[in-house]
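Notes to self after the Tuesday call (sharing in case useful).
The group wants a holo model before anyone commits to mutagenesis around the pocket. I volunteered. Ligand is nicotinamide-adenine-dinucleotide. Logging inputs and output together so the record is complete.
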Amino acid sequence: MKIATVLRNDDYTREVEQALKEKVGAASNTCSFVEGPNDEPDMVISIGGDGTLLEAVHQYGFKPAYVGIHTGHLGFYADWRPEELDRFVHILLEEQQPYIAEYPTVACKITTRNGETHDKWALNELVLRNNSLSTLVACVYINGTELETFRGDGLIVSSPSGSTAYNKAVNGAIVHPSIEAIQLSEIASINNQAYRTINSSLVLPKHHEVELIVMNPQIMVGLDREQGVWNDVCSITCRVGSEKIRFARYKKLTFWSRVRNSFITG
Ligand code: NAD
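Result:
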């Protein structure tokens, strides 16, 4: 098995990676550590936080299985603590097939006014905001039906596993990742006698599409950790991605235990 690691940039995380490599090296000659996506690893171990895992999936894409070791506070995606390294290495090298949890992604197409299209995707969410403190204005179409003209701070289109991230902070619903859906949520919409939005999060099934027609000349688009300023965007279309991110699960930790551990028991 070929394994790659993606690390948060701190000394403790590098120490944990060193310990992992030594333990695996001492116990196995069938596992090898490789350097980058060109080496086509079977497994990518992210050591750090949820942000490190998001970085890992964008670096390595849909092919490998991912495992997270959290070296900071408890992460939503990461299952393992550094103190459990011996147990993790033992289970990994027993070569028992882990349970593979597949998490849906958000597929997005950004179209500029000159007709260029850019295909993007996110494991957590796409965030659309105006690139200044003034109001974002976007017409929202669901499957070609005009729903509203949104005015406010921004819009989030999240995946099920991203529903517990930024989406949750704006009171979006938590969606189990076995449900292939995307969720459109508002950030501080303007609702008064002049302007009206639905003011509820919308959950869209597979094959349904949300189209955001952008009125601002310059916008900010966030895709998980990455954010960029875009000029002259005409529209952004989002749907459930055709590919999923695969997590290798060696622990019996359900999605709802993750929710409890992250938000209730701490
Ligand atoms: P960060 O360092 O600002 O961390 C944001 C927090 O979100 C961390 O506590 C992280 O553990 C948590 N998080 C990330 N993905 C999660 C998920 N799927 N479920 C539950 N919690 C999750 O930024 P980062 O580490 O680079 O993570 C990027 C993510 O931060 C974005 O994808 C976005 O979802 C989230 N974010 C949240 C808010 C908010 O809650 N108000 C604002 C901006 C970004």
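Two things stood out.
The chain has a mean pLDDT of 95.
The longest helix spans residues 11-27.
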